[in-house]
Design brief:
The chain is an alpha/beta fold. About 55% of the residues lie in helices and about 5% in strands. It has 27 helices and 8 strands. The protein has helices at about 5-20, 25-30, 50-55, 60-70, 115-125, 150-155, 165-175, 185-190, 195-210, 225-240, 255-270, 280-295, 305-310, 320, 325-340, 360-370, 380-395, 405-415, 420-430, 435-455, 460-470, 480-495, 495-500, 505-525, 530-535, 540-555, 560-575, and strands spanning about 35, 40-45, 75-80, 245-250, 275-280, 310-315, 345-350, 370-375. α1 crosses α4 (about 60-70) and α19 packs parallel to α21 (about 460-470).
């Protein structure tokens, strides 16, 4: 049976053919072979170096199909053709002897097409689609040599690593944050049988290095409650305690899916025995329709049995489920069962439960659980996101993950991005929009353009950054005036302008004034003294005091965060 990676590749080719894409692309994909599927990428082997270059240029076409099919953001990694000839064994992600002795096997095995390391880390067992391996074949990243059966080697498998075993072991150790192993000792250990216990540790590290982890989530005042609640939910699930329902809501692209996948990855690493079912709305609907068809065909399966049998259920974008009448009742029953039995259920939506026209019983149960708003990031959070992405995903590229890439291509890869200064990143945070996915792509584009400028002996200017931002964000370069902020806040709190800038300190006026000063401080390019002058001649210390008042309320009160985000959106729309 085809591996999940190969199925994903075949489906991508079929989607390209369905949408009338260039026939060269369809033909090229048909000649490729899927090698591996991780949490963040699909790895394929191209038939020639020309195909590698061509498919690299087609990433913008292929990767949206990968996301559509897999319901997760996946990068395409295209590797050059394997070396011809040689019955050389496949080198695993760990030190090995230069010439391992093939292990005997009862029958010849087909060309290897193993499940990904990420899948093995999640399931703590080889994937069902993987071919039978020799009994003494160690797990991925085991510190002992891994030898494929002799008949399989004769069938044409080739060495995939372009570096020596010792160098590859050193690179993998660096990637995992460990010191490089003693290659001599590793070679001696490889000569004997490898113990099974040490092999499990590197396999678990795959989840740690996944993009969607709690460690990689950028924390800000806008998402702090959701982040802390997701960690608490995960901890309760790990301990086997009754976890309250977690409901995260907010606009698209603000990190809801990241938190849900972080829960899934953390549980896969720490509690592989738990049955965790993750699905987005489209996957849920597809599973429901498939199971419904099975019932009609007398297959004996229950509708959504895989969901009901899970210990922890994670569903993303439920607003799309509730918009389809045929699935609503089944969804209500599923959620109600998990809440009644005290099993963990985490859900994300673009709206709060009360706005989703849900059954009143479920709405009240979600409201009594962990209900968390993820707001659009402000300047400080956007700057932190840009810095993290630039330093960890662009600037500090991990060479070990490209161990199989041709050295010439690897050298080009290391030279494909330029330098972004602190001032440039700050300017990018000021003029960018709030969608985090777009923010990361914007950062990548600026780094690439910086490289082009450097090659021409120039440097990236603010005008260049502004031009790129205009292609990404509707809110880019909007000039927000203090008068606009005051008008929106005055209308919302029903406070006259003369009282907003006056000296009265009644509760409703003080709240409106604090909020207006805070939003002016956040959205307008004004000094503290200028802000104070616009609010009736107050000094800079009064302005800072108002800012701190709102910041404390934002940390402790979800309703204030929602109110602030609503006002921020209205101000941006009017500017």
């Amino acid at each position: 049976m085809d591996s999940e990676a190969q199925i994903l590749l075949d489906d991508t080719r079929a989607f390209c053919e369905r949408d009338g894409r260039d026939q060269r692309l369809v033909n090229m994909l048909a000649q490729c072979r899927a090698i591996d599927l991780t949490e963040s990428s699909l790895v394929i082997a191209a038939p020639s170096r020309f195909a590698v270059a061509y498919l690299d240029k087609q990433r913008a076409v292929i990767e949206p199909y990968l996301e559509e099919i897999a319901f997760a953001q996946l990068a395409l990694e295209v590797r050059p053709p394997e070396q011809e000839g040689g019955a050389a064994p496949r080198v695993q992600a760990g030190p090995s002897t230069p010439a391992p002795t093939p292990a005997p096997t009862p029958a010849p095995a087909p060309a290897p097409q193993t499940a990904s390391a990420a899948q093995r880390a999640e399931n703590s067992a080889p994937a069902p689609s993987a071919p039978a391996a020799a009994p003494n074949t160690p797990a991925p990243q085991a510190p002992a040599a891994s030898a494929e059966p002799a008949p399989a080697a004769a069938a044409g498998s080739a060495v995939r690593n372009a570096v020596s075993p010792a160098d590859f072991a050193r690179l993998m150790a660096q990637m995992n944050g460990a010191a490089a192993p003693n290659t001599a000792a590793a070679g001696n250990e490889a000569a004997g049988s490898a113990p099974a216990e040490p092999a499990a540790e590197p396999a678990a590290a795959v989840g740690i290095n996944s993009k969607f982890t709690f460690t990689n989530f950028i924390l800000g005042s806008e998402n702090k409650l959701a982040y802390q609640s997701a960690i608490r939910f995960t901890a309760l699930a790990e301990e086997g305690a009754g976890a309250r329902a977690l409901f995260i809501y907010g606009h698209s692209g603000l990190g809801k899916t990241h938190l849900l996948l972080a829960i899934k990855n953390e549980l896969a690493k720490c509690r592989p025995d738990l049955r965790v079912k993750y699905a987005n709305s489209q996957a849920y609907i597809d599973d429901y329709m498939r199971d419904l068809a099975d019932l009609k065909n007398d297959s004996g399966k229950g509708v959504l049995r895989e969901y009901h049998d899970a210990d922890v259920l994670i569903i993303d974008d439920i607003q799309n489920i509730l918009g389809k009448q045929s699935t609503i009742e089944q969804f209500f029953q599923l959620v109600d069962e998990f809440i009644r039995k005290g099993k963990g259920i985490a859900i994300a939506s673009d709206r709060a439960p009360k706005e989703l026209a849900m059954d009143e019983r479920l709405t009240s149960r979600f409201n009594s659980g962990m209900l968390c708003l993820v707001s659009e990031p402000g300047y400080e959070t956007k700057l932190a996101i840009l810095k993290h992405y630039y330093e960890n995903m662009i600037k500090a590229k991990d060479i070990s993950q490209y161990a199989n890439v041709d050295p010439d291509l690897l050298q080009a890869l290391q030279m494909d991005s330029g330098t972004l200064t602190e001032d440039q990143l700050s300017f990018m945070a000021e003029i960018s929009g709030n969608n985090i996915r777009e923010l990361e792509s914007f950062c990548e584009r600026c780094a690439n353009d910086a490289r082009e400028k450097e090659l021409a002996g120039k440097e990236l200017t603010n005008e260049d950054i502004q031009s790129i931002a205009n292609q990404y964000f509707d809110t880019a370069a909007k000039v927000i005036r203090v008068g606009t902020v005051q008008t929106v806040v005055e209308e919302f709190y029903q406070v006259p302008h003369k009282e907003m800038i006056g000296r009265k300190r009644t509760s409703n006026i003080a709240t409106a004034r604090h909020m207006a000063i805070y939003l002016t401080y956040e959205l307008c390019s004004m000094s503290l003294n200028a802000i104070g002058a616009a609010f009736g001649g107050r000094d800079h210390s009064t302005v800072l005091s108002s800012v701190k008042v709102i910041e404390r309320r934002l940390e402790g009160d979800p309703s204030v965060r929602e109110e602030c985000q609503h006002l921020r959106t209205k101000i941006q729309l009017r500017s």
